[in-house]
Amino acid sequence: MRKAMPKGSEPENLRIDYVPAANSSWISVQSIMPAGKKPADTVFAFKEAVRGTELYMIKANPSYFSATDYEQARQALLEEIMAIQGDPLRSACHMASLWSWGIPSLIFQEGDIIMKTGQKEVSQFVDIYVQKNLEVVMVRIDPNLYEANKKSFSSYGFETVSANNAFWWR
Fold first, then answer.
1. What whole-number distance in Å separates Cα of residue 125 and Cα of residue 101?
2. Which residues lie across from 26 on neighbouring strands?
3. What is the mean pLDDT of the chain?
4. What are the backbone dihedrals phi and psi of residue 15, each rounded to the nearest 5 degrees, phi first?
5. What's the CA dihedral at 154, 157, 160, 165 to 10 degrees?
6. Integer angstrom CA distances of residue 29 from 11, 14, 128
């Protein structure tokens, strides 16, 4: 992904989150990047690198992750689930989360589902929930830097969220 970014704006502290919910799950890919001389170009390049390149390759290339990668991921997830289940407070919070997401029965199936997850399931997830949906790109930027580059951001379709254009505020 670093190769796709403008020189000097390589992402740091890349973080990927997935939050399932009964009616509005979301996946988030976040990073801290130097704005550089052309912050709108940097943001657009990051979006394209994540969605158009990396996530597409995960979907299309069965060898993007090796069998060892999948096994290590499964083991890490299982260890996390065991740690959660071993702590009464974390276990209760986890069960409450599953309930609020509309999938309380998952508590009894998590281990089995994790062990069955591989390239096919990950590819389907990316195809259904990422490639076939529109992305929302959020940028946190110094207001003065944004104002100085507003035209460039606008050319990529970015706009400031306000009560006038945010459907959830209506």
1. 17
2. 19
3. 88
4. -135, 135
5. 130
6. 11, 7, 17
pTM (2 decimals)? Answer: 0.76
Q: Are 40 and 158 in contact (CB under 8 A)?
A: yes
pLDDT digits (tens, 9 = 90+) for 82-106: 999 999 999 999 999 888 888 888 8
Q: Total domain count for the chain? A: 1
Confidence of residue 37 (pLDDT cuts 50, 70, 90): confident
Q: What is the CATH number of the domain that holds 142?
A: 3.30.830
Range of the domain at 127: 2-169
Query: What would the two tokens of residue 140 be?
Result: 């946190």
Gap between the Cα atoms of 149 and 35, Å rounded: 11
pLDDT tens digits, 112-146: 999 999 999 999 999 988 888 888 888 989 999 99
